[in-house]
Design brief:
By secondary structure, this protein is an alpha/beta fold. It is built from nine helices and 21 strands. 26% of the residues lie in helices and 25% in strands. Helix 3 (111-120) packs across helix 4 (137-149) and helix 8 runs parallel beside helix 9 (266-279).
Amino acid sequence: MKEAMLYEKGEYGFVLCNLCHHHCKIKEGGRGICAVRENQDGILVSLVYGKAIATHIDPIEKKPLFHFQPGSFSFSIATVGCNFSCKFCQNYSISQMPRDHKRIQGEDLPPEEAISIAEQYQCKSISYTYTEPTIFFEYAYDIARLAKEKGMKNVFVSNGYMTPEAVEVIAPYLDGINIDLKAMKPETYREYFGAKLQGVQETLKCLVSKGIWVEITTLIVPTVNDDEGQLRAAAEFIYSLDPSIPWHLSRFHPDYKFLSVPPTPLKTIKKAEEIAKQIGLKYVYTGNVFGDEGENTFCPHCGEKIIVRYGFSVMDNLIKDSKCSQCGEKIEGVWL
């Protein structure tokens, strides 16, 4: 256990957690919504510090990040827990473990050892992923500082519920982030994810203002967020942030509490792709549709295919000095 960052001590033994937009007010002996931050005698502690439930060497494309050191490998790490309660979470066995099963599991992995593994496998970055990195913020923060000293990049794969204070603290060490923009109706966020859309939108604006490389993913779920109105609203919001932010349109498959909902029809993914391009987004991708043309990167100026992918593998990369090798157009991203 480790004392938490970003909290305040209140009256009568309560503490106020300022890590995410829930702003949990936690009584003595209680835990926040994430179920991994506990008030112990007026001190908020992280119960998952140094407790890795999952580690893996992943292609960076799996995050998904398509404009961030493409073709490189990232040491990926997670603890149990999440501050959302998504009904179709695809990693629910670890993200919801502290809530569903009242258990906290994980193997001891100190920050220094995580860095050592990343170096051993020549990873270009560390990814804090699989669950929600915000809830293991102290652990991620300590690893990220060490990674930066070693010349490695740091990546969050997040639901985007960090407070501005949390963004401010991690910003000097965070190089890239993929945020799930799960829907565009406040009531959908409340019902299906246990959160507020406004908090995610505020976080995205804050990250963009800090100059952190941002990509956005929307898992398109039938009956939840697949109507044209929400898809158009999402594209317009992303455009208002920056038209060069890559948008990943990911195909849903049944999981967790949504086993009776069918996979997303391909025509729905293609409709969303069409809407995004009509709005003016420069880089739109399809996810969980292996072999689709939407996996590739096209120059927004000349239309040339400049990164060829199959699944999470980069087959060819024609970007030279951050530019399209055919016409010289600048291609936004973080390149090797």
